[in-house]
Each structure stands twice: as structure tokens, then as C-alpha cells.
Amino acid sequence: MIPNAAAVRMTGISKAFGGVRALDDVSLEILPGEVHALLGGNGAGKSTILKILNGVHRPDQGTIEVGGVPLTTHTPEASRAAGIAMNYQEMSLVPTLTVAQNIFLTREWRDGIGFIDDNEAERRAAEIFAMLEVFVDPKAIVADLGAGQKQLTEIAKAISQDAKVLVLDEPSTALAVSDVERLFVFLRKLKAKGIAVIYVSHRMDEIARIADRATILRDGRHVITAPLAELPIDTMIEHIVGKRSMGLSDVARIQATKGEVLLELKDVSGAHKPEHISLTLHRGEVLGLAGLLGSGRSSLARAVAGIDPIASGEIRIKGRAVAIRKPSDAIAAGVALVPEARATQGIIPAHSVASNMILAVIGRLSKAGFVDTKAANSLTDTQIDRLKVKTASRDHAVATLSGGNQQKVVIGKWLATDPEILILDEPTAGIDIGSKSEIIRLVRELAASGKAIIMISSELSELLTACDRILVMADGRIHQDLPREALDDPEVSADDLAHRLQAAEQRLQIEIQKALAVQEI
Amino acid sequence: MASAFFANWRQNIIYIGFLVIFVVFAATLADKGFLNPNNLLNIVRQTAMIAVMAIAMTFVLSAGEIDLSVGAVAGLSTVTVAMAIAVGGPVVGVIAGLATGLAVGMFNGWLTTRVGIPSFLTTLAMMGIAKGVAMWISATAAVPILSPGYSWLFGGGNVGPVPVLLLWMVILGAIGHIVLRRTGFGRRVLATGGGETAARYSGIDTKAIKFKVLVISSSAAALAGMLYAGRLQSGRFQLGEGDELSVIAAAVLGGTSLFGGRGTVIGTIVGALMIGLINNGLILMGLEFSQQLIARGAIIILAVALSQKRT
């Protein structure tokens, strides 16, 4: 390590995948002791440049220096030896191993004879979690953990490496607010020790609070590197989105006319969650479910969609009690669920757009057992057109599309079943801000066209933009039923959309925290 | 916790099943000599080769791969060992046997990890190739082994009342157990099979791991062949034929996942012994070979079904 050298200096990095340019002459400099935010929409090249830094990909061009020393070998081992540690979005955990075994994978603690000492690993893992002031059982098998605990394990794995450069890729997506707080406190401690942190997030509020400087990428190119003080959120969004100005506050909130009751839940409970849920949903209404991870929002969605059948209570659709015991019952009753985990529950990545789009309606499109290709193609084209899916053709694999367009394929697939009740579970997770507002706009349009919609999102600004009514959930129960207007601050001018949204977001955040407090008593 | 107990019960069903079958056979077949120490030692002698191959198969399955060629490789190695002993004596024979296993394993590993053919197909094809080579070089005739020392050490001998085969099984089992549970290599094998992408991102060379487990498996198969050859004092291509099914069944019965990521060597050995136990009991019952096949298949399906973790 050369004194006063940058922690990381990547110069003129270019990388193409099969002719597609992912990075074009990008330079990135990270200083010791700073938290450096890396920002950009999906496909901007963030993950590519991080994977190059981490040795997963080899750059086509350009040089990398870590602590002033050139990095010439591009393997995960070489990058780790150079002092770089990175968490991946749930990709670096082996589900069949325990938390402690995962944290120290390839760096196992040894006993006197040189055999692996899992007890020591468990002690060390517990220490790391104690330092972060969170609790995760080091002996638990990773496959049994919830998303938040997995994410904490990922973070623990990255920080256990005593690295000089810590890369955190979307570390907070599945974390509770309080855990994010503790992570930030910890990151500040690391900064004080001179460790450089590269922080990737889609959440501007987090960036504004933790980062010292930010680098913004767009379409594989470097846009700007500047101290956060010179980058108010509006400016950041402008740089990320480019000319397409599609902030959330642009989405017009046309008051949809409420029709008759389409869905009614009476004292519905699942095997574990949710508990005693009663609600009504009208035609033309968008109902938001707010709450933290584990509050029972997704369980409720899965219950109505027949994935986890209800244990007690009654589901009524259009005034008639229906028995929903499996997904096909729900589809037949006019319910569709756009699920939480797009990659595993929503799409078949290697199949074409067309083949994904018709998946839920193959029966309807088949004649004498053969799929009617013409009808299938015309259905696909209609959905591509209607949802403005950006794809080279209907025959391209869904995996080649950006996250936002993949999500549109999932939505299209379910719209093809012609549902009256559409449930969207985190429809904007991990997609860029331009596609986000497109999806929210779409939700409003679908409601206006007479569908009833339930939307789950951890990004409150989206819920506030999309929904007419918001239910606050905690611990499997509904704690509040709030009309959207109730969250508006009358003292903020209705013309100042950005501030009005911000104020409403604060109020909703307070309601969620209140619900948690009730639960703890 | 109740759920933890239930999960453990699922995992430990093999031990319970082993005991249940043992007790049932002891009660019903006592008068036919089931409990006779000689009969029990015979079960061990007949099981040892399966167990040796199954210990290695535990590593292959744990890494998310499969090796269907083990039975044929064992047969091939009986022939190469016997022919080499005839030419150059027992030491040359042992070297030839191990070389056979290494060569086949490296070829399997190369095809699977470098050429990219799934191990299921690689080793299925190798099964035919190994058997063909064994038939060809031996002209389908048995090759006698006239080395008492070799036959004693590899299969025929006893140390006091203890068959040498039991020692092979116990020593290799202990090594296998420790390597899988307590070494970095074992952990990397489990990580590779449990989540290949995650393992790779964690800096594990998953291809090298897969290559190694396939080499280990073929080497163990060659060793099993050497034990067959020693016990029967000859090499012939039919030895070990069809063993791959018993070997895989032993590992799965013992609690090793066919999908990778979970494996236990001790469970595998108990699984192998259980298969030997069932074979022995069915013979003592006087069932015809056809009936034995059906009963054995049914018992294995039942046991594997019970040992699967329900999700």
C-alpha cells in the first residue's frame, strides 16, 4: 500500500458482453475513509463495474489500482487478497450451509490440528452481529432465513473480511428501518478507521444521509462525480434519468371513481400470517399495503392468490364466497398476483417474451392440445404494445430485458388472464426510477379502466403516489386504514408536489412506527 | 423445538430404519442363521465394496454431480489389476488399479468441467466405455490372481476375527467423514453443490471441486474393484455390474441430497449396510432372485421416500 493513494482507482474501464457495451471508458476513484455512492438506473453499468472491481468480470480495457498497487489478475481471489470485500444481493450465500459457515466460507476458522472449527466460527459470527447490534442465529441454515436476515448475513460476510474497501450493493432493500440505522452507525465507524465504502442503492434518502461523494453512471458512461453537498436529490435524479424527466411527482393522481365492492375479506387468517384480516376493495380502487418486512403484507397477497391457502375466515368476490385453495382457483375467480421475487416467481428467464406472456393462459389459447401460435403471438404483441415493453422482439429471452421491462412482462402475463383484482407485490423492486414511474402510471391506468388493485411496496413515496387508500400492517395484522388524503399535510401547498409527497411520506412512516410500537406492547 | 425434532427425525430415519429392519430380521430369521456371527460378517464383506464407492459418491452428490460409471470402473479395475499382477506382481497390480481409476476420473472430470457435458451423460457413456474396455482386454475371460498376499490385503483376509474388508470400510469411512465435515475441501464441496453461483462468488473454483470429486469417485471405484478382485482372486468384467444403483441408493438412504449441498458419510455407510442387510435377509427368506429384485426396489423406494425432507 502506497501512502496517500486512492483506495481504488479504476481508469478508462470498458467492457462489452456479446457486442453490447456495458461500460464505455468509465473512471472511478474512491478515497480512503469515504462513503462513495454509486448511482444509476438499471443497465447503467453499476453492477458491471463492481463485478470488475471484484474480479468476477475481466475488463476489456482500462486499469485498476487498489491502494496504489495495480491489480493485474482478475479473479475473486485476487480482488479479495487486494482488500476488496463485497456483498451481493443474496447471491453469495449457499442456502444449505449455516449462517456462520457462509460468513467464513473459504476463510474457515481452524482448530489446533487444522480442522474446521464451526464453534469458533459461530462465536465470531455472533460477535459481528453483536457489533452491528442485530440478532441473527449463526447456527441457522440460510435457506430457513427471511430476506432481511439473509441480507444481514451478506453484510456480516462482507465486513468479516477486514477489507480496505467494502462494497455494499443494495444492502438495505430487505432491512427494517432500525437495522439500516445500525448499519449506518457501523459504516461511520469504518470510515473513521480509514476504510473506503462503496454504497449502491436506489434509495436517494439513504444516499443523502450516508454518502460523502457520489458517482453517477448512465448507459455505461460516467456522468458526474461530486460531493453530496453539491447533489441535491432532484439533481441526482436528473443525472440518473437523463433527459427523460419522470420523477414520481409527475404522476398525475386522477381520482378514479369507486365502483362496487369486488373483494371482501372477513376475518381471514393464514397458517402463520396474516391474522384476522378484514377489508373491502372496490372496483377502480388502488389499495396500498404499508409495513415493514414480516408485517404480513406478502402473506396476505399469497393467501388471496391461493399460494398459501387461508386457515380460517372467508374470501368473497363480487359478494359471493369463493374457496381459493390453489392458484388456479384464484385465476378462475379473477385474481392475479404479480409476485415479489420477479426472477424466480415471475418469469422463466431463459424463455422468450412470448412464451412467458402466455404462461397463465395456455389452456385458453390451446385447441385440441396444440397452442394456437397466431393467437399467442397476437396476444403477446398486444401486451408488448400496451405496456410499452422494450424488447428486440417477442422471441427474445426475457433474461435479456432490463428489470423494468421484465416486470412489465410479468404484469402483461397476468393481465392476459383478464383479472378484475390485481395484486402487485413490490412491483418496482430493483428497477430504475424511469421504469418505476411508468409502472405506477400503469397501476393508475388499470384502476381507471375498472380493475381493483392491491399494491405492496416498501417505497412509501410510491405507495403514496399510486394508492387511494393505505392499510398499515405490522405483525400480520392491519393497524390503520387511511384514505390517501389523510396523509396530506394541509400546510404544504398542493402545488408543491415534491414537498407534499415528502410530508406525506413522513406521516406514513410515523404510522408504520406507531403500529410497531403497538405490537411491542 | 418440535419442528427441529421433526426435521432431525427425517434426517435420522436411516438409523431408525436400520434398527427396525435388523430387529425384524433377527426375530423372523433367527432360526435360519441370521444372527450367526459368520452371517453378519458376510453382510459386511458383501457390503464393503458398495460402501467404499458410496463414501466417494457422497462427495460427488454433495457437489451437485453424479457418477454412474462406478460399477463399470470397478469391473474394469478388477481386470487391469489381475492382468498387471500376472505380468509384474502385486505392487504393479495395485499401481495399475489406481491408475485405471485416476485415468477414468480425470477423463470424466475433464469432459464435465471443461467440455461442459453434464456428469450424468459423461458417466453414463463412461459406463459403456469402461465395460467395453474390460471385455476387450480380457477377451471376456476371467483373469486369475495368484498372489496370496494381494488377496489377503485386498479383500480375502482377516485380522483375528475381523475381516480386512471391514477395516477398509471403517478406515475409509472415517477419513471420508472427517474430510467432508472438517476440512476446507469438504466445505467447498458442500458449498459447490449447495449454491454454485454463491460458491463461485465466494472465491471457490467450483470446476476444480467438481473435477476432484469425479476423480475421487473413479479412484474409489477402482479400489472397490481391487477389493472384488482380491476377494474372488480373479478379475472379470462382470464384477461390480449394476453397483451404481446400490451405491447411489446407499448415499441417498443415508441422507445425502441428490440435488447437492447436503451429505453425510456416516449416513452413507449405514445406508450401504442397510442394503446389504436387506439383500441378506431376502436370500435367507428363500425368495427367488426375481422376487428379491422387486422386494429390494420397494424397500429402497420406501426408505428414500421417508428420508426426503418435505417442503
TrEMBL record, chain A:
<keyword id="KW-0677">Repeat</keyword>
<comment type="similarity">
    <text>Belongs to the ABC transporter superfamily.</text>
</comment>
<keyword id="KW-1278">Translocase</keyword>
<feature type="domain" description="ABC transporter">
    <location>
        <begin position="246"/>
        <end position="500"/>
    </location>
</feature>
<dbReference type="GO" id="GO:0005886">
    <property type="term" value="C:plasma membrane"/>
</dbReference>
<dbReference type="GO" id="GO:0005524">
    <property type="term" value="F:ATP binding"/>
</dbReference>
<keyword id="KW-0547">Nucleotide-binding</keyword>
<dbReference type="InterPro" id="IPR027417">
    <property type="entry name" value="P-loop_NTPase"/>
</dbReference>
<keyword id="KW-0472">Membrane</keyword>
<feature type="domain" description="ABC transporter">
    <location>
        <begin position="8"/>
        <end position="244"/>
    </location>
</feature>
<keyword id="KW-1003">Cell membrane</keyword>
<dbReference type="GO" id="GO:0016887">
    <property type="term" value="F:ATP hydrolysis activity"/>
</dbReference>
<dbReference type="InterPro" id="IPR003593">
    <property type="entry name" value="AAA+_ATPase"/>
</dbReference>
<keyword id="KW-0762">Sugar transport</keyword>
<dbReference type="InterPro" id="IPR017871">
    <property type="entry name" value="ABC_transporter-like_CS"/>
</dbReference>
<protein>
    <submittedName>
        <fullName>Monosaccharide ABC transporter ATP-binding protein, CUT2 family (TC 3.A.1.2.-)</fullName>
    </submittedName>
</protein>
<dbReference type="InterPro" id="IPR003439">
    <property type="entry name" value="ABC_transporter-like_ATP-bd"/>
</dbReference>
<dbReference type="Pfam" id="PF00005">
    <property type="entry name" value="ABC_tran"/>
</dbReference>
<keyword id="KW-0067">ATP-binding</keyword>
<keyword id="KW-0813">Transport</keyword>
<dbReference type="InterPro" id="IPR050107">
    <property type="entry name" value="ABC_carbohydrate_import_ATPase"/>
</dbReference>
From TrEMBL, chain B:
<keyword id="KW-1003">Cell membrane</keyword>
<feature type="transmembrane region" description="Helical">
    <location>
        <begin position="12"/>
        <end position="30"/>
    </location>
</feature>
<feature type="transmembrane region" description="Helical">
    <location>
        <begin position="92"/>
        <end position="111"/>
    </location>
</feature>
<protein>
    <submittedName>
        <fullName>Ribose transport system permease protein</fullName>
    </submittedName>
</protein>
<dbReference type="InterPro" id="IPR001851">
    <property type="entry name" value="ABC_transp_permease"/>
</dbReference>
<feature type="transmembrane region" description="Helical">
    <location>
        <begin position="68"/>
        <end position="86"/>
    </location>
</feature>
<dbReference type="GO" id="GO:0005886">
    <property type="term" value="C:plasma membrane"/>
</dbReference>
<feature type="transmembrane region" description="Helical">
    <location>
        <begin position="265"/>
        <end position="287"/>
    </location>
</feature>
<keyword id="KW-1133">Transmembrane helix</keyword>
<keyword id="KW-0472">Membrane</keyword>
<feature type="transmembrane region" description="Helical">
    <location>
        <begin position="42"/>
        <end position="61"/>
    </location>
</feature>
<dbReference type="Pfam" id="PF02653">
    <property type="entry name" value="BPD_transp_2"/>
</dbReference>
<feature type="transmembrane region" description="Helical">
    <location>
        <begin position="123"/>
        <end position="147"/>
    </location>
</feature>
<feature type="transmembrane region" description="Helical">
    <location>
        <begin position="159"/>
        <end position="180"/>
    </location>
</feature>
<feature type="transmembrane region" description="Helical">
    <location>
        <begin position="209"/>
        <end position="229"/>
    </location>
</feature>
<dbReference type="GO" id="GO:0022857">
    <property type="term" value="F:transmembrane transporter activity"/>
</dbReference>
<keyword id="KW-0812">Transmembrane</keyword>
